[in-house]
User: What shape does this take?
Amino acid sequence: MNDLAGKHILLGLTGGVACYKAAELCRAFVKEGATVQVVMTEAACQFITPVTMQALSGRPVYVSQWDAREPNNMPHINLTRGADAIVLAPCSADFIARLVQGRSDELLSLLCLARPMGSVPLLVAPAMNREMWAHPATQRNLAQLAADGATVLGVGSGFQACGETGDGRMLEPDQLLHDVIAQFQPRSLGGQRVLVTAGPTFEAIDPIRGITNHSSGKMGFAIARAAHEAGAEVTLVAGPVSLPTPRGVKRVDVQSARDMLAACTRLAEGADVFVATAAVADWRPATASEQKIKKDGSGQAPVIAFAENPDILATLAQGERAKSGDLFCVGFAAESHDLANHARAKRERKGIPLLVGNIGPLAFGQDDNALLLVDAHGERELPRAPKLDLARQLVREIAHRLPRNGSTS
Ligand code: CTP
Assistant: This one.
């Protein structure tokens, strides 16, 4: 995906060992379609060369405010006016202090001060030793920087170049890439709390075996990511899937439909939106054997009786919070044929305002999908696209329909 297509990012490097990660970050920005202009402080040049950054960005690097390449000799103005964002990665403790003071005696701090604050967000990825990070001066400066309108992206924790272990590592390039992409998404769910179910459930036959299905969880994980990008606080209740947790999303892992129901019932108390994408097993073995069921030599297969699982979506949709309009429920329907009719009927049956239909065999495990949105007013198709694209569109559709936005559906 080209999530940064058309974006122009000014990537600023300051002095820190984490400069080695900035090379990969630059590459990731370019891969996502951005143009990248690198600006380095003198200290940054001690850790990585402008040659590397020029090669990766495809543009000459700026290191001096006296750069004669600019006809008007004002790189601090020229470089910031066309930028969609300034990303400082790594941003040292010293540079944070400089930003707080509004210092401007070298190009990078000068251009941060000169940036048009209304249109060029400043994203800061701190990187430093754990004691420097924990120092009250640093924490005070970070709070002030945020109050001055910068976005502080946080730090990682772990083994540090100095040999110590703790907080203060620069976030990894893929985490930073994610945060920068999120910065450009509309904040349509700001302040909302979203609960998402995803993946299959696993219904035990015995301690070794069970019944599950082919759901990969990709759509639900994409929705969780998109909702977080849109400013929501997101909790993802996931069946057994091997997908990484989207950044910033709280994840609760469950196995069976009954586990999923218990988790969702508890978590829905604090949610405004519930999106049920999980492919919940309709039936479970009526009793799970505590020991492995062995072949008894008779050649007869064991007979397994089934019990119907609770319907998680219908249960929450019939709950008090949904009925009083405090919980907006969205269901998914995986059908094999006659999608619109089945989706309409399922929306009615489950008693929910919005149902999202898709053709199961064309969706399971795929990276893209096509969706049919069905609500009280009719249908709308979201044509085939990558699941993250569709998830972002769906999140906007949900946001439009929330009661606070004045929708009647
Ligand atoms: N769902 C759920 N709990 C279940 C079954 C389904 O929460 N026990 C949710 C799914 O997450 C999805 C929606 O209900 O959002 C539709 O699920 P689906 O299995 O397609 O529909 P069913 O009601 O089971 O109908 P059918 O099997 O007849 O298609």
